[in-house]
Amino acid sequence: MADLRGHLCWAPETASATINTEAVNPSPAVFLATHTPLRIRRARIQDRSLIPMDGTADEGTVLADFLERRSTTGALLMPVVGDTGSGKSHLVRWVRENIPVSGDRQVIYLEKTQTSLKAVVNALLEGVDSESLSKLRADIDSFSSGLDEVALARRLINALNEALAATSPRDLSGANRILAGPRGLAVLLQDPHIQQYLLGPGKYVPLLAAQLLHDRDAASPERPAGFTVDDLPLKVREIDKAAEVSKALLSKLLSKPDLRTAAVDLLNQHIETAIQNVSSLGSGRLQQAMLQVRQEYARQGKEIILLVEDFALVQGVQRELLDALTEPAVREGTIRYAHMRTMMAVTTGYFTDLPETVMSRVSAATTGYLYDLDLIFNRQDDGAEQIASFVGRYLNAARIGQEELERSGGHRVPNICETCPVRSSCHDSFGHSPEGHGLYPFNRPALLRMVHSVAPANQPWAFVPRTVLSNVVRRVLVDDAAEISACTFPDAAFKERFPLGPEDPPLTSAVSELVNSYDQIAPQRRNTLLEFWGDAPADPAELDPGILEAFGLPPLPDEASQHRPAGPEPTPSAKGKSPAGENTPSPALRRKLEAIENWATRNLPLQQAIAGELRALIGETVFRRYNWSQPLMKEIGKTEAASRAWPNNSIVVSIEGAGGENLPGTAAAPIKFKRNTLNSQFFQSLLLAKYNSGVPRSEDIRRLARFADTKATDLAARLQQSFETSDADLTTGLRAALIGAALAGKAWPGMDDADLLSAALHDGRGWTRGDHTIRTAQWRQLLEHHLNQRKTLVEGLRAGLGLSQGIGAVQMIDAARALPLLRQAASNWTWRSPGQVPEWVKRAVTGFATWEERIDEQNTELAATLGRVRRHLPRETSGRDSVEAVQAALKEADKVGLSPTGAQQRDRLDALIAEAANADWQVVSALERDLNKISSAEADHATAVRVHAAVRDRGASLSAIEAFLTGADQWLTTALGDAGARSDLAGDAAARDVQTVLNEWAALSEGKNDDG
Asked: Which intervals of the chain are annotated as region Disordered (predicted)?
């Protein structure tokens, strides 16, 4: 088998040149060499439906029926129907190649690539000449050479407009009547703005115009069968440029699907008239010309065989041509026209949509039935042998090459496998067709699965030969040849090109994961081989060793089979209990497990409900296993707020290909699962564990635990983001708490960390300022508001920095985290909004934008207070001596009647003296030092010095001192005046005594060097 490793028994360029997907392209020899017997059904025409008849036929039967069936009119019409690529043209070509040569027949063959009107007319009229036919040929030549595609397309639109304008509401029924006449559908075609849309790239009219003028080459698209809803001007841009009547009709078309269908039918009914008018084929000219041809061959005694590869290519002349082809050969006992046998290929949809007049004429000329090539297999009859035979012939032709096939003439084509040195091992491993052609590099399961993969979505068992040749055989032999030779086939792109068909079971995720565990070289390639070439076995070792060797893969170790995944759970019994016991998954759970399996193996979407359940399981596990210590923070339950931070949706757990993945933020989800078999097994185990059913894989449960631990940092980040407790948020909160404490006189620059942290985390209850009387009104207002909101601020800080017992109150603070943040916060005593302020901080910092203004205002107020004190208490004057002097003066004043008048004034002065006697006179010098530092501070420390001076609590002493000094000064000044006013001896003596006291008061300014 070593000789087959990476072996190519074909040359890619030879395969490309030999395998053609169009029946008309290959030479007769190649065509016959690759022809595969067809399985064809007969079908009756009933109204517009095709009713299958019993039994099938092959191409030989069709040929004999076509040549021998009798028609009472002498004009036989045999449609061959089928979907695109079903082999209709191939059958028509095969009939042509196998019609016996006879002088009694004239064969006319219309190839599907000869789409131009000139080619069609010339082919129909070939061999016959007359003055009228020459004139017709000349007119068609002039038409083909005198117009370009753009001009013809515009003429077709105008001619179609005229044809539609001539319609009558009587021709339509119900609401569709608004489409008839000059103010109906014709309005849209004559509107210049809408004409531009109809003439746009890819629209029907420009494509039709191009193919009426030119034959189709291999790269050109097939001619569309007619107008479709997509050709209607329903997506016209700048609709305001259209006429009002056009906009009104467009509005009706947009809102009424039935009206759109009627509009398309009406366009298709009149496009033939438009083509005839622009091409000079009107007035029955082609019909008369074809009847002349029939007359001439009748004179020669010949029967006409007309073979049409695609009935759509005679679009524009179909009715006239059918009239001529189905005209009876015998009139009044005399042969007037040659007998006609017409075989035409037509797609099923196009055939059943033919206009009523055409359909009735076709039905009458078929003598009862037609042939249907739409070959659809089923589970019981999967067509494996027919498909192997079909592909095997093309594989043999690709190996032989066109030159050798030409020498053989297409008959008795050699089987090159018979001389191949690896034939035995190759056929044993990959199989061969019924004719003996080796299927390498395919085998039967791979071919079936690839055929199903490229089948129409609504017909999963359909076999479409052209699609199989182009998308399967050619792609593998030509495009994948290098990978096969290099032993890298099938690569990752293979599964993208051949998605699994709905009828083919996928390789289970359990087997796939087993392969992933044991194949460390190319597990993806092995899984693809198992699924396609191995037909998705339950045992990963159940793949022919020869296939593995050919594609360069070693066998799996024996233990891979020993660990093969268990089969499915036994189905529940009639009573709802499983034979294995109650641990069997319920039907509902089975459906979920199957959906997860299909998500991974069939690339199907995972329903949102199942995805949501998985997201909740995974998200909740991560949340419950979080230990709230990295970083340390207060533990919370899965409250509404926590659910917003860590919701059970795709913002947290994103599952590729699942429902509910369209939420904003999904792309940044911290937990993401790719669509693969590993995650399929993981998800299935989670559900089995959740419902305590079946046998979850232990490695998946361990994976969940590991997974939850590794995602703890993501949860922490989301919690910090949601609760706004990131380092930046907490730093902002700490700075706010410090400024708030400073407003209350509890914190200031230069305090040690412990005191600052204590002040920052204090909720402010019981905080009052001793010096509130010397605080500005704005300061007091700002402080009051802050203290009212400080509780929320501090709770946020404690939650972000603290640790609790369970979900209770915070018991301790994570100093290791808090102190660096505190130092960062305390490094700047200004408040400049950092952008997004956490919600739990916002209310407490209302007004903080004016913090620096309040500082400067307060320092100004303190300086003014100091100035008033210093007017009565110069520096180096003892405050306590001042108190004693005033007390002595008051005692002397009492003796001479100069004490304050009235009990209230005397009590007030006594109270001021008592408060001053108990005051801390050091506060005056301390304030003075703090204020003096402001002017001398360096720039780097200016703010801290200003804040320090403003926020320190000066206590009640400063107010008491100022009040005492001011009150004493006022009394002594009054007493002195009163003493001087006296004129008696007693007054003179009192004046002298008071003057003595005043002199003592003045002398105090020259006394002690401190304020004590």
From this structure: 544-587
Query: How many Å apart are CA 824 and CA 992, to the nearest integer?
Result: 66
Query: 776-782 — which CB contacts under 8 Å span 24+ positions?
Result: 776/854, 776/857, 776/858, 776/861, 778/850, 778/854, 778/857, 779/743, 779/854, 779/857, 779/858, 781/847, 782/743, 782/847, 782/848, 782/850, 782/851, 782/854
Question: How many C-beta atoms surround the C-beta of residue 996 within 10 A?
Answer: 13
Provide the pairing of β-strand 303-308 with 671-673: unpaired
| Gap between the Cα atoms of 130 and 296, Å rounded | 10
Alpha helices in 200-284 (DSSP H): 204-213, 244-255, 257-279
Q: What pLDDT was estimated at residue 440?
A: 98
Which two three-digit tokens encode residue 616? Answer: 């909740």
Nearest to 290 by CA among 104, 133, 107, 131: 133
In the chain, the amino acid numbered 337 is Y
- The tens digit of pLDDT for each residue in 372-404 reads 988 778 888 888 999 999 999 999 999 999 888
User: Quick one: angle between helices 59-68 and 88-98, nearest 10?
Assistant: 60
Structure letter (DSSP) for residue 180: S
pLDDT tens across 480-520, in order?
A: 999 999 999 999 999 999 999 999 999 999 999 999 999 99
Domain boundaries, the chain: 40-144+301-372, 148-278, 378-499, 587-723, 727-844, 877-918+966-1007
Overall average pLDDT of the 300-317 stretch: 88
> What is the Cα–Cα distance from 433 to 590, expressed in whole angstroms?
40
pLDDT value at residue 127: 87
Task: Give the helix ranges, DSSP H, for 105-148.
Answer: 117-125, 131-146
Q: Are 739 and 851 in contact (CB under 8 A)?
A: yes
CATH 3.40.50 is held by the domain 40-144+301-372: yes
Burial class (CB in 10 A: 0-12, 13-18, 19+), 727: middle
Task: Determine contact, residues 490/522, Cβ cutoff 8 Å.
Answer: no
Q: What is the 3-state secondary structure (H, E, C) of 478-521?
A: HHCHHHHHCCCCCCHHHHHHCCCCCCCCCCCHHHHHHHHHHCCC
Average pLDDT over residues 947-964: 94
Tokens of 458: 């609504």
CA angle 917, 920, 922 (to 5 degrees): 130
Chain CA centroid to CA 491, Å = 26
Q: How far apart are CA 21 and CA 40, in angstroms?
A: 19
1001 has pLDDT over 70: no
Taking the CA atoms of residue 602, residue 607, residue 608 and residue 609 in that order, the dihedral angle to the nearest 10 degrees is -130
